[in-house]
C-alpha cells in the first residue's frame, strides 16, 4: 500500500498539488453558480471573464519565472522555443472552448450533475493516453475507469420510480404526488438535476467532455515530451498567450471585442462574486500545469471524480440542491472506482523528474539534469535516479 501511495504521489509536494487541484475545481462550480441571476443567466460577459482569467494567468506565470530569471531571459526563451509556442495553440484552443462551455453548462446543470457528467471523459482519456504515450493500461486500471463511467451513468437513472406505489389511489397519496410533482417541475426549470435530456445541453456537455480529454492528454504530452526541456512557467506563458488569442477571436466573431471592455461590461465584472471566479480559475490553470507535468492525466480524472463528494455536500447546504438516491449511489460507485485505481495507479513521468520543492520548477530542466549527472559522477551513487 505504501508503494502504491508512492507511485501516486512521488513527493509531498505532488500530494499538495493534488489537494489544491480538487479544492480549486470544487470552488469553480460553486462560485460560477453563485454568480448567476435568478433565471440562471449571467449579468456579465462570460467570454470576457475567461479572457481576463487568461491574462491573469499570463501575468502570474511571467512573475513566477522572473523570480529566478530576468525578463530578457523570458523573452529569449519564448523566441528560442517558438516552435513549442505554436504547438500550444492546439490545447489552448481546446481549453478556450472548454472554459467557455463551463459557463454555459453550469447555467443548465447543477454543479453535482455537471461534475458527474464530465466524468464520462475518463474512458476517452484512457484511450488517448494509450495512443499518445504508448503506455497500455492494465485490466484493473480499465475496470476502475469503467466503474467510474458506470457511476456517472447512474446519475441519470430515476431510482425513485422503483419505490412508487402504483396501487395507492387514496386522496392523500394523490395530493402528496401532486405536491412532489410541482416541486420537481419547479426545480427542473431552475436546473437540470437528472443528467442527459437529449437536447442541445447534452451536446454541449459531450463537447466539453471531448475538449477536456483532448486538451489534457495533449498538454501532458507537450509538458513531458516535446516541451520537457522548457521551463514550466515558460510553457504556461505559451499556453496563456495562445489562449488570449483564441478568446479574442471568439469575441471578434461575436462582434463583442470592443464592447467587451466597455465601462458597462467591466463594471458588471468588477464585483467580488465575479472577481473570485477569475482568481480561482487562474489558479486552476497554473496548478493543472504542475499536475500534468509531475503526475498524469489519468490521475487528474480521478481527482475530478473526488470533487463530487464535496460538491454534492456543499451544494446541499449552500443552494439547497437535494442529494437523491441515484446521486448517492453514483458517488458510491465512483468512490469505489477511485479506491480500485489506487491499488494499481498509472505512472507516467516521461522525461520529467519528481518535484520535491517548488523552487525546482524555476530551474531550467537541462541545468537540473546536468547537476544531477555531476553529482552522480562525484558520488558514484546511482540510486538518485528514479524510474
From TrEMBL:
| Transmembrane portions of the chain | 12-32, 44-65, 85-107, 113-133, 196-218, 238-257, 269-292
Residue ranges with Acidic residues bias: 378-387
Q: Does Transferase count among this protein's keywords?
A: no
Chain positions covered by the region annotation Disordered: 364-387
| InterPro entries cross-referenced by the UniProt entry | EmrE-like (IPR037185), Nuc_sug_transpt (IPR007271)
What is the organism field in this record? Drosophila rubida
Q: Which GO terms describe its cellular component?
A: Golgi membrane
Q: Where is the composition biased (Basic and acidic residues)?
A: 365-376
The answer on whether this UniProt entry bears the keyword Aminoacyl-tRNA synthetase reads no
Q: What is this protein called?
A: Cmp-sialic acid transporter
Membrane topology according to the record? Multi-pass membrane protein
Q: Which Gene Ontology MF annotations are present?
A: pyrimidine nucleotide-sugar transmembrane transporter activity
Q: What single Pfam family name could you report for this chain, choosing any that match?
A: Nuc_sug_transp
Q: Where in the cell is it found?
A: Membrane
Keyword entries, A-Z: Membrane, Sugar transport, Transmembrane, Transmembrane helix, Transport
Family named by the database record: Belongs to the nucleotide-sugar transporter family. SLC35A subfamily.
Amino acid at each position: 500500500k505504501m508503494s502504491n501511495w508512492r507511485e501516486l504521489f512521488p513527493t509531498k509536494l505532488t500530494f499538495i498539488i493534488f489537494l489544491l487541484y480538487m479544492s480549486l475545481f470544487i470552488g469553480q462550480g460553486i462560485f460560477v453558480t453563485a454568480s448567476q441571476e435568478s433565471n440562471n443567466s449571467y449579468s456579465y460577459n462570460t467570454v470576457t471573464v475567461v479572457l481576463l482569467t487568461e491574462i491573469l494567468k499570463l501575468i502570474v506565470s511571467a512573475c513566477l519565472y522572473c523570480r529566478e530569471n530576468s525578463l530578457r531571459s523570458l523573452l529569449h526563451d519564448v523566441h528560442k522555443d517558438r516552435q513549442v509556442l505554436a504547438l500550444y495553440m492546439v490545447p489552448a484552443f481546446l481549453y478556450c472552448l472548454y472554459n467557455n462551455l463551463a459557463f454555459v453548462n453550469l447555467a443548465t446543470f447543477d454543479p453535482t450533475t455537471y461534475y458527474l457528467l464530465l466524468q464520462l471523459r475518463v474512458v476517452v482519456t484512457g484511450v488517448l493516453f494509450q495512443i499518445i504515450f504508448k503506455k497500455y493500461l492494465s485490466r484493473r486500471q480499465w475496470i476502475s475507469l469503467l466503474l467510474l463511467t458506470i457511476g456517472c451513468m447512474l446519475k441519470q437513472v430515476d431510482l425513485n420510480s422503483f419505490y412508487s406505489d402504483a396501487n395507492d389511489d387514496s386522496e392523500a397519496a394523490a395530493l402528496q404526488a401532486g405536491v412532489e410533482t410541482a416541486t420537481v417541475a419547479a426545480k427542473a426549470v431552475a436546473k437540470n438535476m437528472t443528467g442527459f435530456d437529449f437536447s442541445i445541453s447534452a451536446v454541449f456537455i459531450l463537447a466539453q467532455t471531448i475538449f477536456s480529454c483532448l486538451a489534457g492528454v495533449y498538454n501532458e504530452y507537450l509538458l513531458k515530451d516535446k516541451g520537457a526541456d522548457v521551463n514550466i512557467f515558460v510553457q504556461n506563458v505559451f499556453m496563456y498567450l495562445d489562449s488570449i488569442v483564441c478568446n479574442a477571436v471568439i469575441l471578434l466573431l461575436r462582434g463583442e471585442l470592443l464592447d467587451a471592455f466597455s465601462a458597462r461590461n467591466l463594471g458588471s465584472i468588477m464585483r467580488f462574486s465575479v472577481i473570485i471566479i477569475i482568481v480561482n480559475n487562474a489558479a486552476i490553470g497554473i496548478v493543472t500545469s504542475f499536475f500534468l507535468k509531475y503526475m498524469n492525466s489519468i490521475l487528474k480524472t480521478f481527482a475530478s471524480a473526488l470533487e463530487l463528494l464535496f460538491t454534492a455536500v456543499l451544494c446541499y447546504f449552500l443552494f439547497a440542491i437535494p442529494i437523491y438516491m441515484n446521486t448517492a449511489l453514483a458517488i458510491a460507485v465512483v468512490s469505489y472506482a477511485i479506491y480500485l485505481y489506487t491499488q494499481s495507479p498509472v505512472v507516467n513521468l516521461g522525461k520529467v523528474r519528481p518535484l520535491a520543492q517548488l523552487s525546482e520548477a524555476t530551474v531550467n530542466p537541462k541545468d537540473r539534469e546536468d547537476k544531477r549527472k555531476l553529482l552522480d559522477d562525484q558520488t558514484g551513487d546511482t540510486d538518485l535516479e528514479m524510474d
